[in-house]
Amino acid sequence: xxxxxxxxxxxxxSETLVRRLAGPSxxxxxxxxxxxxxxxxxxxxxxxxxxxxxxTNICMISKASISEMLNKGWxxxxxxxxxxxxxxxxxxxxxxxxxxxxxxxxxxxxxIVHVDMDAFYxxxxxLDDPTLDGKPFGVGHGVLTTxxxxxxxxxxxxxxxxxxxxxxxxDLVVVANNFHRYTExxxxxxxxxxxxxxxxxxxGCDEGYLNITRYCNEHQLAANDxxxxxxxxxxxxxxxxxxxxxxxxxxLAKICSDKNKPNGQFKLEFDSCAIKAFMxxxxxxxxxxxxRVNERLLESIGIxxxxxxxxxxxxxxxxxxxxxxxxxLQAYLGIASNVVQPGQxxxxxxxxxxxxxxxxxxxxxxxxxxxxxxxxLEHDMERGDWTGKTLTxxxxxxxxxxxxxxxxxxxxxxxKKEDLFMIGKELLMPELPLTLRLIGLRVTKLKDLRADVQSxxxxxxxxxxxxxxxxxxxxxxxxxxxxxxxxxEGPSLTQDGFEDxxxxxxxxxxxDELDAQIGQLDHSPLSSALPxxxxxxxxxxxxxxxxxxQPHARPPHSAPASSQNTAVASSSRVAKPVSTISNPKPQSxxxxxxNSFYPGLAxxxxxEVPAVGATDTALSGGSVQAQTCPICGKxxxxxxxxxxxxxxxxxxxxxxxxLKFLLPYSHRREGTSLTHERQLLKERPEGIRxxxxx
DNA sequence: GCGGATCAC
DNA sequence: TATGGTGATCCGC
Length: 694
Description:
Blueprint: E1 2-4, H1 13-22, H2 35-46, H3 50-71, E2 74-76, H4 84-104, E3 112-117, H5 120-128, E4 137-141, E5 143-147, H6 149-152, H7 162-168, E6 173-175, H8 179-196, E7 201-202, E8 207-211, H9 213-219, H10 223-238, E9 242-247, H11 250-257, E10 265-267, H12 272-280, H13 292-299, H14 306-311, H15 313-318, H16 320-323, H17 325-333, E11 350-360, H18 363-384, E12 386-397, E13 402-408, H19 417-428, E14 436-448, H20 449-456, H21 459-468, H22 473-485, H23 512-521, H24 525-536, H25 563-573, H26 590-597, H27 601-605, H28 612-619, H29 636-656, H30 665-668, H31 677-681, H32 689-692
Parallel strand pairs: 4-6, 9-10
Antiparallel strand pairs: 1-2, 3-8, 3-9, 4-5, 7-8, 11-14, 12-13, 12-14
The protein binds a DNA duplex through helix 3, helix 7, helix 13, strand 11 and strand 13.
């Protein structure tokens, strides 16, 4: 007997993508209403470009991988003498125990605030040039880093190439980035935030997390009043508006700050039931760590909202490896980290530089680019007093395929550009000839020269070491002076964490438009190519799609522009007859899906998303039938072992399947609260590109 | 240790 | 005509 644990057929991929056109992924404030028309314009403008082709291929590979995963999502139940319902019941019981355990860890004692500047770059530009007021404008060149709210009404968004933005909004004004100004203004704003929490954590230049518990206590302030006061202060001192979310943890606060954007705030009730109600209809895309790929992955088994996590917990349990059950259960409960602390310098893991340019095939010119990058990296490494043991070269072909090549050393890598260039060249030369559009260098296995010096003997010794090192002591001293003047107390950047942290290039890196376009494209030949690609992975242990990059692959030499299309074509040729994947079926509610695959499940554990009250009763270990597993505590011990064995072997199969789509580590970490800790605590104390310009 | 992939900002 | 840069981590090898 076979039990289907996946529900791929119920959600046609093309529909999934098309739905995203106007779907919840595009919930940015100030968006235009007619998303369909916007997407048509974007698709029109993009069609035929290499970028578009590349994204199309990526989309197909994703679909194929998801499809493969779902095809492998069968569990052989013949080893069990019982019916599948027993298994499901047990799984749900197991998950319920997990939920109870998680619920017990919930901490509502801290007041966490996520602050987020509204259209930060655009607002700063507006500050400096009032004539822009009321006009639709974008910031950036080539690619927009942000758009004014007027421009957003036309569908102009961050990450959009300006030529497309102009098509959507012919009157669009485009102004250049002024990173220096953003850094400056950002510092002002962060200084204000720090009055409320000196330990606040800046997350990029336009947002941050604060714990205002203490401030509220000391000033006898309600959280809402405190945050309102803080926002007023920012407005008064900088003329900028900021939105904020108030919640018991960072994840919730982040989601809340989006609720009343722009220039608003939202406080979530500090109550378990209210939080779960809040999460139930929340799109999974809002969860930190769930990007475009994971969204699709989860949608493929019918999970679109955090509430769906609960109703699909049996599936998720069986496919824990793929989905990260623990993370998702926490998300469903609205549980996450509430630890707010500034990023630490020692947390840094790598430092690098990369540059995009119009495609170059000429070797000498490529090497010249490499040298530029090496120079930039030298600057940043010396500026931050970093070195490391591994150098990674990154290059992207004109087809937008990216590759990396790395080399490790037993000694510390010299920070001199000549040496960086030489190693980089060594890595690059065997790959040529190629037509490249990007080159980058990155150093990992870092060593913090400052910490080293400090622990050794303090400032004097540091001075001597600087003098002995192969870099200019004069230069180093000057840079250090700059940083100390900025308020830094030595190596720890707890004070200024943000100082050198140039913003991410964009306010948001989302560009779902392309997926949308590709979704439209899915109606034709692409979908039919999928089954073949999927089955091709079956024939040996290796999961290799025709289009997939091979591990350690050598990039195609001077790949003709059509090479990928050729691959598609050949893949189509071996494809089996069109499968059901793209067969549009009426899309019914998720729990219906669930029922159809888990006969009896609804009766046993309730396949529908439970009402909040019901959940609570469930979690409190009450008498709700859903929680009383008919198997647990009795004969299940034996079965449990078998069951686990089965799961293990399933997991092993999954692993050998080389699935490409996995949740990020932070969401799979056992025990620790989910957290975008990585993001939140991440400090980028040194050498951001923008800084090197001044 | 290396390379591909995903994600956040 | 034309689609970014920095950093982190996981997995399979």
